[in-house]
Amino acid sequence: MHFVLATIALLHKACGFSQFSEYRISLADDIFSIKHVVSSFRNYNLEMDPYTAKLHYLIQSSRRITIFTGAGISTKSGIPDFRSPNGLWSKLKPIQYQDFVASSEMRKEAWRRKIVIDEDMRNALPNRGHRAVAELVKSGKCQNVITQNIDGLHQVSGILEKNIIELHGNGTYATCLECGLRHELGPIFEAFDRDNTLPVCRRCNGIVKAATISFGQSMPEEAMRRSEESSLECDLFIVLGSSLVVFPAAAFPKIAKSNGALLVIVNHEETDQDGIADLALHREIGQVLGDATNVD
Fold first, then answer.
1. Residue 276 dihedral angles phi and psi, to the nearest 5°
2. Which residues of the chain are modeled with pLDDT < 50?
3. Looking at domain 2-76+126-167+219-293, does it have CATH number 3.10.180.10?
4. Which single residue of 41, 69, 128, 130 has CA 20 to 30 Å from 158?
5. Measured distance CA(249)–CA(91) in Å, rounded
């Protein structure tokens, strides 16, 4: 088995995989270290390519994993990436938070867009990538999932709220901007569809907004604090489906790496942080992480 794995690695090396291919690893020869620990792999099989095997080994040998997810993990669930070249923000100018608060017309436009966006989110279900992340949390290896996503699919996959850090809020409900009271979307949508009625808080009559972080709105302090803490505490930081271009969120992989953690990036496209990653895979997240964690 060791010979076969080494042969596969040699073939990959001979093919000249570079950081512009679907695989990249920090040291080309580092893949050969895998052959010394194949016997410890859980359910290892020869169909696992050496790069997925590398990820499997990093996961198995880690003590504390922090996972960071972006829009790319949810596209297989039918939720579009708003920041992609053909995404929503390429067609519509984002509504700034200050404009939402100041203008009832901007609030109406925001709710019109929200209703359209929720057509994709409403029936979405967790995919193999979400299930693999949930398995890592269930195993105890991963304590925190930092997410840029607002779709709530990590919760639906079975991960407890206490293990999820939502940097950009949650789009499955609304909150009052004054008192923070939670409001469900169903009644809001019904009233708005009927006569464009804008929601107001039933407790304090404040402005009600989807519980997401809008452009121009301050990042949530508690989520940022917990994310930094989790980045500093982990020994393996795994990025799944993020282009790592939105700051300050994109700083967390660098924080983890600078504090000694190994960094893995799985994303369809290259990122600016591939060069500092110990392993970067430009492949489908569900396939890679599902194979690496033995989750269907």
1. -100, -5
2. 1-46, 89
3. no
4. 41
5. 24
Determine which one of 12, 130, 168, 183 is catalytic.
Answer: 168
Q: Which of 3.60.140.10, 3.40.50.300, 1.10.3810.10, 3.30.1600.10 would CATH assign to domain 80-123+169-212?
A: 3.30.1600.10
- pLDDT of res. 122: 84
In the prediction, which pLDDT does 80 show? 82
Question: Long-range CB contacts (< 8 A, 24+ apart) of 60-63?
Answer: 61/37, 62/141, 62/234, 62/235, 62/236, 62/262, 63/141, 63/235
Q: Which DSSP state fits 27?
A: S
Place of tokens 């990590």: 154
pLDDT for 152: 96
Domain ranges of the chain: 2-76+126-167+219-293, 80-123+169-212
